[in-house]
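Consortium newsletter contribution from the modelling node. Members have asked for a concrete example of what our holo predictions look like. Here is one, prepared for the alpha-D-galactopyranose complex that several groups have been discussing at recent meetings.
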Amino acid sequence: MTSVSAFGPGRVNLIGEHTDYNGGLSLPFAIDDGVMVTATAIAGDRVEAFAYDFEEQDSFLLADPPRGAEGWRAFVHGMVAELAAAGHAVGPVRLEIAGTLAQGSGLSSSAALEVALGLALLALAGEEDPDRRALARLCSRVENEWVGAQTGLLDQTASLLGTDGHALRIDFATMETTSVPIDLGDWRLVTVDSGETHSLATGGYNERRAECAEAARLLGVATLSEATAEGAASLPDPLRGRVEHVLSENARVDETVSALHAGDLETVGRLLDASHASLRDQYDASTPAVERTVSRLTSLGAAGARMVGGGFGGHILALLPPDIPTPEDAHEVIPGPGARIVTTP
Ligand code: GLA
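And here is the predicted structure:
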């Protein structure tokens, strides 16, 4: 029997939110939690899939993955279809899926699933070392066209290209990536669940994306990262705020990179706070549950705290100085290695 397992990590975005689809900058890292997919070649003409976390299963014709499925099934259908359409030799297969990331948590359970499916299916097809940037684009297409979330390339790129101990500075205008060492000493980065899940397919995410496209059209730029402060100021609300967020967030990414290189973690904390304020006030991506969680972490002594990922719920990232104990409901996050094959065929 030919079988292969692949692990796709989730990600934490240190800073640079809602910039990926605006041709801007982000600074994510891969984390230890994620999704494991075991792919086993089977006889016949079908794909059999099992999602252990939900105790659900699925079965469909390899030649005709159905469109319009909900939840995890849409990712499986889309990955099988898009890999085959891109010319990869996907055969009849049994897929076993198990993860340690909650859906809608803002830690990229979706990308972790896509990436693990992609690496496992490709390895089974004899492609153990695929072009990871091309795979990131394929995963993003699945999310856009099969799941209905108009997300950018942040999550898949972080999951596929992340490296141990480093964040990844991504310039989405060029897709150039640079590894940035994360040396926190006795400080910690932690995530705390706001208690509210989000859906990128149905929440405010697609609306923000449409607003950014409209602002770019009005300003005559290809992406909002090419806009100027004067251009932003000329727009009506809420478009003005959307552009101002993108421009200031891009600047904060590079200020964070400089502060990390200088070992100045107080400044990193201040930049996280500024990012959160901009996402809340200019981008309107916060909720009462998110605000309560951020305020709690700040009053406990966090150097900075902000929503991560698409917003509208999900997890909060906080930077804790050495003398501040980790709150009971917080989970320390450490930059880990990117997606990988765990067993070879
Ligand atoms: C989600 C999307 C990403 C990105 C972030 C916001 O995680 O999947 O593409 O847009 O939101 O930065």
